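[Solved] Which block belongs to which protein?

Original post:
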Amino acid sequence: MNTTSHPSLPRRAFLASAATVTAFAALKPSTVFGADANTRLDIGLIGCGGRGSWIADLFVGTGKYRLVACADYFRDRVDAVGGKHGIDPARRYTGLSGYQRLLEGKLDAVVIETPPHFHAPQAAAAVEAGKHVFVAKPIAVDVPGCRSIAESGRRATAKKQVFLVDFQTRANPLFREALRRIRKGDMGNVVMVEAHYPWSSGGRDLPPPTVEEQLRRWYNVKALSGDFIVEQAIHALDVATWVLDSDPVRAQGLGGQKLRPKGSIWDHFAVNYEFASGVPLSFTCIQTIPEMRDEITCRAYGSEGYFFGDYFSNVWIRGNEPYPGGNVGNLYTDGAVANILEFHQAILAGRCDNPTVAPSVRSNLTAILGREAGYRGGELTFADLLKANEKLEIDLRGLKA
């Protein structure tokens, strides 16, 4: 199956080799449970587009993995990744079912970097095949997909397999410490939360005309990406739901296509959520505004203080029990590297509690609730969203198996 250049990649400019080397050095693990922590694991990559090829470099760069197989719908992509990493041509798989043939081979783990539409079935197949799973966010584009990922996480735990979802903020020590303090009560009771995702890029191209071209430019296709709020802005909602630690009750949404052409994904959402005990979350995301400052921010106001966290700058808590926090640095790369190394550690140590799955399902469902409320231009309850269980479909007929 395919993937393409991640839509956020160009704006971040986070690929400097020096920063990546620094991340590797800072996050190097020690020996775990008597096993050599430098033991290399054999992995397969499913999705060889922009982010897939980028994260493959990070996995291999740690020195703890061998990339021995890859799969993508497109031949040019598997050959680019396969050639770079010396993968046997016989283990470079193409077509819609390429990932299934990859899973039949000898592997310790798989890395799933395909369009989000395919994450749930590919993860389920990987768990069934006995592989450890590292999967990109978002985990799914619809409620059935989220439920499938939740079940795959449970099955992985039962089968003693590791299943990790790659949210970079959750891997950052500053965010982790701030959230630990919030859980401890340093901020008092949460009163209100805000989350925002303004992005200067995004594009205003017409939707791809053919299904094959849609696979190459999947971000622009709702059924493949889940729309802007699910594919990208989920970063801000993930931190917000991390703070709130509960499912939403309902959402009131607006949004639309003021800048993107008809038939593409939406370019803005404004959603007001209600969480447990009536706590409100105010959320906005917008793209394709030239010269706008990019942010992925969350602010939480408590009875004893308030929290601020930004993917691109700082994390802190101010109030009666302040936490100075600090600058998160190169979170896009460093967070991914931290997750890659923790994945390795968990596999060697046999830690299969898989704590990233449940919060990823929660934030993904929260983003889907906001999307569907926005589409309706009104209110939607979480209970009704789950009851409807609607699936986003795409017609893949005519594509090579």
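(Second protein starts here: sequence line, then its structure tokens.)
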Amino acid sequence: MIQFRIQPDSEIPASTQLFNQIRFAIASRQYPPGYKLPSTRALAMQTGLHRNTISKVYRQLEDDGLVESLAGSGIYVRAQGHEGGSKLHSPIWKDNPQAYKVVQQALDELLFQGYSLSQAKEFFLAEIDWRLRCSARVLVTVPASDIGAGELMVQELEQSLKIAVQLVVMEELGAILDKTSSATVVTSRYFISDVEVIAAPLAVRVIPLDIYDYAKEFELLKNLPKDSCVGIVSLSSGIVRAAEVILHGLRGDELLVMTAQPKDTYKLHAIVKRAQLILSDQASFASVQAALLMLREDIIRPPKLVRCDNYISSASINLLKRELGLA
């Protein structure tokens, strides 16, 4: 069970702290679709918050479309976007019985509603054609306040998909979509609710990507000696903020956590001089190495460097390839 920690002396309201931690758990797939969230009573015991505050957080998550409440059962993480992947590949039914079942059910439903086979065929072909046209232009969008997250996504997607990907700040997304007839918008699940508000009225497809779960990195952090200093370096300001919260939830005050973005030379040098372990995203790793090389004469014991090669989960990359017809 994930341990959520509330920092009572923080300027950030307790409800916002909890909301952000649960949203990160959903975005990183620690809470996958269908997962039942802890009861308000269980979470109150864990965090020390009043149950009414937790209920308010759950309502906000539900309003944002991240969870759904099932009467008499509880609160569950919702499936979002095109998570099932496209099943409309060239049909070789004997080798793909599940694909046949999906297509058959969709066709049966159209016929039951009174459409003809010819109309159903046109529907399928129009949808496929639309998706192929959308695939010709892929837009990654994030808030301007966390442009680094978008840069990480673009870098990984261009490496994996072997196509050009355009980065658009969320604040300008509506204006960009007004000028294009077809596009696929991609964003982190962390930002999916805000992006869908912009894209839905324009009938633009949005595909959410899951964050890499950082399981190996978490295991390293769990085993660090008490009073160790950990450095977190990332292009994404959101990752830097989330790392501080999660590490506090993981180890409390046992670890000293220092964070920086690669362009912040002062903080980066402080981390290299002080930390025993430095975790860095792929895009920032060269900056960390350069700082370590520059300061090598001032360091008695060099820190251990760990490069996180992924920001996006491999499952999301594979899903996107299928959705774009690249698989």
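Accepted answer:
You had them paired correctly. Confirming on the second one: The longest helix spans residues 117-135.
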